[in-house]
Amino acid sequence: MIKRAICLSAAVLFCVPVFAGELSESVQSDYDEHLAELFDHFHRNPELSTVETETARRMAMELSLAGFDVTEGVGGTGVVAILENGEGPLVMMRADMDGLPVEEKSGLENASRAKQTDPITGNEVFVMHACGHDVHITSLVGTARHMAAHKDEWTGTLMLVVQPAEERVLGARAMRDDQIWERFGKPDYALAFHVSSSGVAGVVNVQEGSPYAGADTVDIIIHGVGAHGASPHRGKDPIVLGSQIVLALQTLVSRELSPRDPGVVTVGSFHSGTKHNIISDRAHLQLTVRNTSPETRKVLLDGIVRIAENMGRVAGLPEDKLPEVIISNESVPPVVNDAPLVRRLRSAWVDGMGDDAVVDIPTKGMGAEDFPFFTQDPEISSVYWAIGGTPQEDFDTEAAGGPPVPSHHSPLFKISPEPSVKAGVESTVLALKTLMQE
Fold first, then answer.
1. Cα–Cα distance measured from residue 374 to residue 176, given in angstroms and rounded to the nearest whole number
2. Which of 279, 341, 300, 146 is nearest to 215 (CA)?
3. Which of 15, 176, 229, 391 is positioned for an S-S bond with 7, CB 3.0–4.6 A?
4. 3-state secondary structure of 182
5. What is the CATH number of the domain that holds 303?
6. Residues 291, 62: Cα–Cα separation, whole Å
7. Which regions of the chain are under pLDDT 70?
8. Parallel, antiparallel, or unpaired: how do β-strands 324-327 and 214-223 relate?
9. Number of structural domains, the chain?
């Protein structure tokens, strides 16, 4: 085996000795012997947000067997695993573990048939790993096993975090509220990745900007005056007013944000009325609002309040009946990568995995993620990257008119596990060893 040194900067000398091909061979061996079966187990047995008890128990066992000091029950079902290895930085790597209330229709042999009582509705529902969190936790185990077996190649303290309830953007906040930094130490660096069905399997995609948006949940309660449908002049129609508000909200992005400043205001739900000939006295709009900066967030939220209240005045409502705007406290800020750290890790990934294995493709959607609750207040240097999960031939088939590649949260969602898990482990190990040098 040929020994090389990855030199990550021409200006600053921090070179990491590695053995070309050794990491890939080690990860492949572990995948064949352990990780493939572990992924299959997680995929068949997903659990809903906040009730990931069996998943957490299995993860605690796997990390403990790898040699980590494991604490369960952090922020609910969260798990924190610590491995101390001499002087050096404290680096955190996070993986989320919850599934979704979706019936899997992927056609895979290991498709989930699991059911669970939904803690929100109390109903029994099908559960599926429809967002790839099974890849994340399997890769975390592979990372733990490799780092524990190669302690001579790094120094410092490694913190592995198994986070619950990402799908409900509750888990990271809950672990912070449970004093994770006070109990285990505040990391010098924080890392995470997400598998992506829109990326080619096994390819790392990392950006210097904001790969995930901030998100707010907003409700607008519209108070009308009920009347007979045949006598609209006797009432104040909340459906008409609500429709005017929905249309006016679209001008926030199109006319109040810079054309290069992304934002989303989506009305996902509009409920009012009970019968054909009754003008209701109430309407309820439910919105999701997305942004990539605090400034954009303020423009959008302030604009929603201004439009809703003043459209109520236009409709002739008295001041005590103006529409109410309720902004949920379950908002999440955008994920913002540390640009110099991105460049440092990208160099390590290119040298360790190859030029073709690393890309920089801007995120097209405005999906949100609660990882920033780990990295902001206090601010921690962090990078969040993506691992492609769909074979190239599936994209070629779609381009030729075949079935489209299913999106996340779809009952048809599927990930190619071997290249995804292996790239997850390799990219994480390379990142950790880059940051945890002697």
1. 7
2. 300
3. 15
4. helix
5. 3.30.70.360
6. 37
7. 1-20, 438
8. antiparallel
9. 2
Cα separation, 280 vs 7, in Å, equals 68
Of the residues 47, 98, 153, 167, only one is catalytic, namely 167
Q: What phi and psi, each to the nearest 5 degrees, are found at residue 389?
A: -130, 0
Interstrand relation of 189-200 and 90-96 (parallel, antiparallel or unpaired): parallel
pLDDT tens string 51-85: 999 999 999 999 999 999 999 999 999 999 999 99
Distances 213 to 120, 149, 156, 332 between C-alpha atoms, Å: 25, 37, 32, 8
Pair (422, 357) in one structural domain: yes
What gap in Å lies between CA 129 and CA 386, rounded to an integer?
17
Q: Is 40 a catalytic residue?
A: no
Q: Which amino acid, one-letter code, is at 203? A: V
Q: Which two tokens stand for residue 310?
A: 């003043």
What pLDDT digit, counting tens, does each position of 356-390 carry? 999 999 988 889 999 999 999 899 999 999 999 99
| DSSP H helices in 259-371 | 294-314, 339-353
Q: Which amino acid is at 79?
A: V
Question: Active-site residue among 96, 104, 237, 338?
Answer: 96
Where among 292, 327, 362 does a domain terminate?
A: 327
Please list the alpha-helical segments (H only) found in 256-338: 294-314
- What whole-number distance in Å separates Cα of residue 88 and Cα of residue 438? 8
Q: What size, in residues, is the chain?
A: 438
pTM of the model as a whole: 0.87
User: Which residues are within 8 A (CB) of 318 and not within 5 positions of it... i.e. 6 or more apart?
Assistant: none
Are 64 and 163 in the same domain?
yes
- Which residues lie across from 69 on neighbouring strands? 82
Q: What is the domain extent for residue 321?
A: 214-327
Q: How far apart are CA 426 and CA 202, in angstroms?
A: 10
Between CA 5 and CA 360, with CA 18 as vertex, the angle to 5 degrees is 80
Distance of CA 8 to the CA centre of its chain: 28
- Whether residue 60 contacts residue 80, with contact meaning beta carbons closer than 8 Å, is answered with no
